[in-house]
Amino acid sequence: MAEYLLRFVLGGLVVSLFAVLGDLLRPKSFAGLFGAAPSVALATLGIAVAEHGSDYAAIESRSMMYGALALAAYSVAVRHLLMRTRLRTVTATLIALVVWLVVGFGLQAVLAGEA
């Protein structure tokens, strides 16, 4: 459990730092390069294969796909809450965070045994 928490915190920090760096640089097209979570994901999978084997990396990649779908649901929810209901940004993102958690953990619970 501690390893997952550490990966979560460090991964979030790395992506956030690179996104800030990309925002400070000109041209703005660098922001997409530096904030690219897929490169961090690929590096994480490489580490997972090296340390734990391909079966473990397969589980990690499946979890990443669940997270990507949950992020898409979160993004749609935020957009809907901001555009349709005119909620404040903080309120909309906090409400949508519940959507992200439900979708992410729901996919894990429903699809984890089907692999």
Description:
The chain is an all-alpha fold and 115 residues long. It contains 5 helices and no strands. The longest helix is centred in the middle third of the chain and has 30 residues, at 54-83. The radius of gyration is 16 Å and the shape is flat.
Structural category: mainly alpha
What composes the largest sheet? none
Poorly predicted runs? none
Mean pLDDT over all positions: 82
The dominant shape is flat
Q: How many E strands?
A: 0
Question: What is the N-to-C order of secondary-structure elements (H for helix, E for strand)?
Answer: HHHHH
* Contiguous helical run count: 5
Helix coverage percent: over 70%
Key features of this structure:
5 helices
Please write out the topology.
Elements: H1 2-24, H2 29-34, H3 37-52, H4 54-83, H5 89-111
Summarize the structure.
This protein has 115 residues and is mainly α. It has helices spanning 2-24, 29-34, 37-52, 54-83, 89-111.
